[in-house]
Inverse folding.
């Protein structure tokens, strides 16, 4: 699993001109899933996401996590995060899981994230053509790959 996490002042998802989800201060999490991902990948990423100290404390130092600032999370599936650009100029998405594998993992991820956060996580709709709007705060953008823990 690969996640792009952005600290936001606001973020929203619109589908067919209808707003599906909106958050204010918090994290926008774009999530890519591949076939080899397991519950261990979910556990690893969820723990990292809710524990990331990317919000400013009273001294202006990034020292607080999303829970400590009562922030929200907007979770959006994004198969293009699994793109391979090794050959040519057209990305290959062969590593991205098909819906029959990805949807259950995405749903498990969302449930685990809600449990760790202690409140509802807002979401897009898996596989939908979504328009994501955000105001990146900082900007702060973190990439975490459960298969490559060097990030």
């Amino acid at each position: 699993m690969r996640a792009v996490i952005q600290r936001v002042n606001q973020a929203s998802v619109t589908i067919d001109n209808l707003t599906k989800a909106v958050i204010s201060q918090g994290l926008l999490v774009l999530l890519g899933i591949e076939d080899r991902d397991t519950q261990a990948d979910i556990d690893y990423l969820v723990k990292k996401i809710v524990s990331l100290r990317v919000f400013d404390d009273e001294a202006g130092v990034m020292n607080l996590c999303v829970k400590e600032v009562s922030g929200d999370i907007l979770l959006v599936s994004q198969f293009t995060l699994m793109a391979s650009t090794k050959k040519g100029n057209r990305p290959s998405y062969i590593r991205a899981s098909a819906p029959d594998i990805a949807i259950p993992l995405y749903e498990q991820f969302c449930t685990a994230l809600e449990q760790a956060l202690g409140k509802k996580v807002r979401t897009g709709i898996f596989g939908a053509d979504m328009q994501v709007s955000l105001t990146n705060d900082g900007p702060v953008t973190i990439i975490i790959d459960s298969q490559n823990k060097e990030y």
